[in-house]
Amino acid sequence: MIARKALPAEFLDFNRKWGAPGRNMAVDGMNPQQRLADPDPKRFGPFGFQFPNEIRTFEYPFAASHVPPGPRRVLDVGAGLSGLQFVLDMQGADVTVVDPAAAISDDEAPTEANFWLVLRHADHAKLNELFGTSVTLVGEGVQHWDHPAESFDTVVCLSVLEHVDPVEAREMLDAITRLLKPGGQLLLTVDLFLDLKPFGVLEQNVWGRSHDVYGLLRGLPLRLDEGERGELLGFPEFDFDRVVKLLPELLVSKHYPVMSQSMVLTKVEPEVSFS
């Protein structure tokens, strides 16, 4: 489904409790790097070290609502310094973040005051210390990560795939599926841009592309348990006219014309492929 402006009450409660998706940087004039250097950085909360986006008001509680508190192994793909990883850890999960942005050495990372917070291992370690968490950070692309198969109960991948081309996106989904335990869940969101086809005229923008989601998933041993097929780009049931009529109800970022398509997929037996 495409996220709506009207969020469920439990999503609003999650955002209030944890300060998601992060305070507007204009409120105090501090970027994430400056917040980390603050004498009391913990006051910004787990979501205080990222640049917020309106669609994240849906995405974070959506993912959290499908990860019950308690012991379970969770992989967060491309999370950066997102607060969700620390919240899930605090609720009992064993969380691993795999993100190629962390592959750069701390010495090589940019330090300009206006630079978006790069994924330094030292910064991630500091946030673990601040929040009493033990999230593991792996500086690799998930498709290149040599890790035992069927290791995770849940994989979270929020607004990541649109930043890469279709070939790489499929490679990432292949790897994610390999890492999921049988019966494990993939909590997936993929951006849908209003300035790109089929709504606009462009094929790609500064943030990425609107993927054929059906094409990316087709043939994988995954079952769509949640997700309105008529609102997922590329699906045979995708209803362009219906989505356009729904626009007044849909959650569109104020910073860029983008929406969030969300799915819950379960890993099934290999002989049962996505269709």
From TrEMBL:
InterPro entries: SAM-dependent_MTases_sf. Keywords: Methyltransferase, S-adenosyl-L-methionine, Transferase. GO terms for biological process: methylation. It comes from the Bacteria. One of its GO terms (molecular function) is methyltransferase activity. CDD domains: AdoMet_MTases (cd02440). It holds the Pfam family Methyltransf_23. This is SAM-dependent methyltransferase. It comes from Kutzneria kofuensis.
